[in-house]
Amino acid sequence: MGKVYVFDHPLIQHKLTFIRDKNTGTKEFRELVDEVATLMAFEITRDMPLEEVETETPVVTAKTKVLAGKKMAIVPILRAGLGMVDGMLKLIPAAKVAHIGLYRDPETLQPVEYYAKFPADIEERDFYVVDPMLATGGSAIEAINSLKKRGATSIKFMCLIAAPEGVEALQKAHPDVDIYIAAKDEKLNDHGYIVPGLGDAGDRLFGTK
Ligand code: PRP
Ligand code: URA
Fold this sequence. Notes:
Blueprint: E1 4-6, H1 10-20, H2 26-44, E2 50-56, E3 61-67, E4 71-78, H3 85-89, E5 96-97, E6 99-104, E7 111-117, E8 125-130, E9 133-134, H4 138-149, E10 154-162, H5 164-173, E11 178-184, E12 187-188, E13 194-195, H6 201-206
Parallel strand pairs: 1-11, 4-5, 4-6, 4-8, 8-10, 9-10, 10-11
Antiparallel strand pairs: 2-3, 6-7, 12-13
Helix pairs in contact: 1-2
């Protein structure tokens, strides 16, 4: 079963409160999502493998460390996932960015794929699928299906807010995928919105209705 990590860092929790606030406008909402994505990227990279190298400092030759292991790719689920990419790239600037376009059919709540573009060396990368919201879990599950179909073997999922229903569905569908979240909320309402949540993440990020 994939592990679930909830990031309770005070800065993340503080910023998330203002992201949730309905009076937070588009500009500030976008900036806060970007900042939280950076803070979460710092947390998810905590266990990255390191290797030893020799470095000549101005004083001596020293044994120091650099990152080792697989290269990374960030996969935003369009559209709202885009709001988390730049924040992550601030810490992981060499990561490739793949894209997967999915929208939730408002009637059935089922995800519909309309775009996908991935790097060529898909088997050799650690993929971080990102989306602010994990509601029913349908979009995340479908995005990960799409990645696996193309040969990805190392996948993690990161979001700001998750409903318990979405976490359970994602764990069941993809038990090999760890889930990183800033907050696990109470439930979904009858329209598939997370309660208390933050509303429609895509609309709030891009100022649409
Ligand atoms: C939102 C959100 C997720 C999805 C979560 O996207 O950004 O992708 O819903 O819901 P689920 O877990 O029930 O699938 P939406 O479909 O509204 O598209 P958008 O990003 O283009 O606004
Ligand atoms: N998608 C959103 O943007 N918000 C929700 O609460 C659920 C799905």
